[in-house]
Amino acid sequence: MQANKTLFFAIIGGAVLAVALMFAAVAWLRSSGTELTPPSQKIDIEVVAAPGLKDWVTQAANDFNASQTNITVRVSEATELVPSSKFQTAAAWIPEATFVAASAGRNFSSGGSVASSGLAWGAYSDKLAAFQQVYGELSWDSLHAKATSAEGLKLIIDSPRTSGAGLAALASAAAAQQGTNQLTEANVGAATAWLTETLGNNNAQARAEAAATLASVQGRSIADVGLLPLAAWRRVKLDQSDQFTVLPAQPAVSLDYPFVIVTDNAEAQSAATAFKDFLLKPEQQAKLADAGFDAAGAVSGGVQLDAAAVQRLHSWADVTLR
Prior knowledge:
The protein is an alpha/beta fold. It has 13 helices and twelve strands. The chain has two domains: 43-117 and 255-291, Periplasmic binding protein-like II (D-Maltodextrin-Binding Protein, domain 2, 3-Layer(aba) Sandwich), CATH 3.40.190.10; 119-253 and 302-320, 3-Layer(aba) Sandwich (D-Maltodextrin-Binding Protein, domain 2). Helix 5 crosses helix 7 and helix 6 (164-178) crosses helix 7.
């Protein structure tokens, strides 16, 4: 009888301890800032995606919405480098690069990369051979030599005013001239005269659909070379053409497409995080190749630049690239 009583009180004591531990865990989660969102709550969120990535994100959102009923994800396209007007309504933003997110001047939380692409030179092979015969291997030094020659340079890049890829092209140029992969505002300031010689005076053309322009029937006569994301060359299939050469840019600049939480609403943050996790699922990552992109984290490193350097490059482009 005494043994049964002992066993009974042991069971009761264990149950009380389990309940106490559960309440303690909940209290700790709340005190640490982790919100417990009811799984049955329905919520509608907006995700703003960089233009080149929008189609993949939209398809993933359709798959995500069909896979569950609690969260509805709507995808819109970023029409500005930093779509500040969207930050009041959107839950998340996927810019082209971490350095673009840093230039927003907000203390946003990043969930890390969801896609990636390197920066690459692209040129018609016969034109590249003719260039190399006169100026040597394709590099920023040889491009500067052609830009400052009597014939000048025809370089196509994405617009640095509206595109992280355009800023990446400028960052590669400035880093090459300064001999550093850690680009600061001071570096950009010291490189501006050289940048103007190389890219100013109509030597560089900033276009919204740069890869498609070079892939057109007039493309051969429009430019000597282009500097664009590898994903852009892949989308227009120029990387598969035996008449076209695609080469990794040096210095390299990575476009890492971070998933940035821009809302303060805890429920929207939780919903956005669930969608980010879905984007990182193997089946969704595999679909990136259809849009020309590499998987999250596959392309990394290269030139690093802080928000002040981004702003200085952006300001230079506003004045010099017309």
